[in-house]
Structure formats: structure tokens, C-alpha cells
Amino acid sequence: MPSIYDLKPRFQNLLRPCTAWLARHGVTANQVTIAAVILSAIGGGLIAAYPTRPWALLSTPVVLLVRMALNAVDGMLAREFGMKSRLGAVLNELGDVISDVVLYLPLALVPIVPAWAVVAFVLQAVIVEFAGVVAIQIGSPRGYQGPLGKSDRAFWMGAMATLLAFDILSPRLAMIALVLLTTLGLVTMVKRVSVALRNQQETV
Fold first, then answer.
1. Which one of 74, 88, 115, 146 has the fewest beta carbons within 10 angstroms of its own beta carbon?
2. What are the tens digits of pLDDT across the range 100-130?
3. Transmembrane segments in this chain: where (predicted)?
């Protein structure tokens, strides 16, 4: 199944001039990574504080788009401008998970959204990223496979927040959407684990 992650090279090309400008002005990859986490916390905080306000929900797709740009920029700064570090690798993985949790979990406070479904979705998001990282533990490349990676989650949750803002989703539809996304997340987890195990077997 195609993933939004496949569009990453084109997205990076659009951001390359901005990335070069940041590098020239002394901005580091780690600073950009931390900025993405802070931005996500602000976005989640707006929803937590104003769960019934359309403008707070509409901030979510904007935050997600900027966060995706920051994630692309920090990777290019690290790879193309010699900023790779062990700390950066740790911040990158932890930052993605923390950002997902602080941005998506407050949606459980939106009145028409089933809180348990949001919690289940966030839990699978954490597990999916863990499944990608654990591949390294057995000697395989970091896993990004599957139909609901980080970029896909961002797209669908941004779309859901937009629909909620315009009062288009009913509680039932919101629940069905979250259950479907959580199921796709579990499929993604299985895919990443199976690819990691296959790669590991091929190298033995």
C-alpha cells in the first residue's frame, strides 16, 4: 500500500534552500528537532485548553504540516551538513513519539470523540515506532514500512481534526475512523517486524 512517506524526497527538495539557510546561520539539527516537539506540545495544549473551539482543532493540521517540515529539515541538516550525532539520533526517535503523544492525546477531550479510541490510536502509534526502532537491535535497518507511518498518521489526524472543527464527523464516524486507523497501525507494526526479521535472516 502506498504511503505518504514515499513523497518525502520531493518534500525535502522543496525545503533544501531553507535548510541551507538555517545551516549558514548556525541552526543545528538538534535545535530543529526540539522545536518540533515544542510546537506539537503547543498544538496539543491548545486542544486540551479549548477542546470545543473550531480554531483550536484547525490549528492541528497547521502544526502537523510545520512539524513534518521541521522533521525533514532536521534530517537534512544532520546528513548533508555534518550534524549527525548520537544525541541527535536519540532526540529524533524520542521526539517523534513525544510529539505524537502530546499532539494527538488531547483529542480525547473533544466531546464527540470517544476517549478510548484516541488512547488506543496513540498507543499503537508508540508501538509502531518502537517496532521500527527495534529492527536495529537485531541488525536490520530502521523500519519505515507499512500503511500508517508517521507521515500517514499526520495526514489522517490533520484531516480528522479539520472535519471535527467543521462539525462534519459524528461520534460514531469518529470512532470508526479511529478504529480503522488503529487497525492500519497494527498492520504497519506487523509489516515492520516481518521485514526486520526477513532482513536479519538474509544477512545470516
1. 115
2. 999 999 999 999 999 999 999 999 999 999 9
3. 32-50, 172-190
